[in-house]
Amino acid sequence: MAIIFLFLFFSLKLFSQTTIGNFTVATRLAISPSNELYVIDNTTEKVLQYSLNGELLHQIGGNGWGNYEFNQLTDICVTPLHVYVVDYNNKRIQQYDKQFNYIQTLGEDFFSKLNIGTVQPRATTISQQGEMFILDSESKRILKFNSTKNFEKEFGNYQSNITLKNPISLVGNENTIFLLDENTIVLFDIFGNYLSSINIDSSLTHQNISIFNNTILLTTSKKIIGFSLQGEIVFSLSIEQFSSDNVKEFKDVVGNNSSLYILTPNKIIVTPIP
């Protein structure tokens, strides 16, 4: 009996390794191609940049509508050169360089010139070709822009073979756009054509999705689940496995090499990929 207890004890504690940060209520995590971590701390309206070793490199934010202020941050996307921050209540996306120097705003003035109606940005992703995809939560559609920010098309609405219900998270890789929509992960190609859907457990509170080495990482409040591109579950981590860190809720996750970086409201937990 003692041997069984010790085995269970150490298997539950196995995954917790190191932690990064001290946040108020963090909600979103991204990793750059050069391996910096970017965290949205929603209560303070800040975006923080960390090294993988946990060193705080840069930060911007505060509540407001200036170029370095935000009002309900909902997403962040990082490319080799730029950082894109979705500022929900200000109805805009702010673009910065890697040191958070302001570049431009994609907001109401920008969208009003496109004759595509009101746009409420919720999430964004950038393809390897520099194409920009914006999740418009008001009209429940995805807007595609080319690398020079010229509008190309919209999809995911009545023009597609699928109707979105409550889309909340958007990511992409070189060929595919992945959208978290209620109890479904929806896959489109980069031209906006519907590919397939992956049904997920409706009993879980879904938070975010990310993509790492052709594995879709789904964050729910109590589980981290990895899916193959075909929808098969390849691993699952439960919140009970991190009880030594006093974790009450998962918010987001990204991968790098052999590690997962799991965002909780107060910190990032670094753990081996199962």
Task: Please describe what this structure looks like.
It is a single chain. The protein is mainly beta and 274 residues long. It has a single domain (2-272), classed as Neuraminidase (6 Propeller). The chain is built from two helices and 24 strands. Strand 2 and strand 3 (37-41) form a beta hairpin.
Spell out the blueprint of helices and strands:
Blueprint lengths: L1 H12 L4 E3 L5 E6 L5 E5 L4 E5 L5 E6 L11 E6 L3 E6 L4 E6 L4 E5 L1 H5 L8 E6 L5 E5 L4 E5 L5 E5 L11 E6 L3 E6 L2 E6 L4 E6 L6 E7 L2 E6 L2 E6 L4 E6 L13 E5 L2 E5 L4 E5 L2
Antiparallel strand pairs: 1-24, 2-3, 3-4, 4-5, 6-7, 7-8, 8-9, 10-11, 11-12, 12-13, 14-15, 15-16, 16-17, 18-19, 19-20, 20-21, 22-23, 23-24
SS class: mainly beta
Spans of at least 5 consecutive residues with low confidence:
1-16
Q: What's the shape?
A: globular
Number of domains: 1
Helicity level, as a percent range? Answer: under 10%
What's the count of strands? 24
Radius of gyration: 19 Å
Strand neighbour order, sheet with most strands: 1-24-23-22
CATH top level label: Mainly Beta
Tell me, rounded to a whole number, the average pLDDT: 91
Question: What would the CATH topology be?
Answer: Neuraminidase
Tell me the number of helical segments per DSSP (H or I, 4 or more residues long).
Answer: 2
CATH superfamily: TolB, C-terminal domain
End-to-end Cα distance = 26 Å
Main beta-sheet strand count, sense and barrel state? 4 strands, antiparallel
**Element string (H = helix, E = strand):** HEEEEEEEEEHEEEEEEEEEEEEEEE
Do you know the CATH architecture? 6 Propeller
Strand residues, percent: over 45%
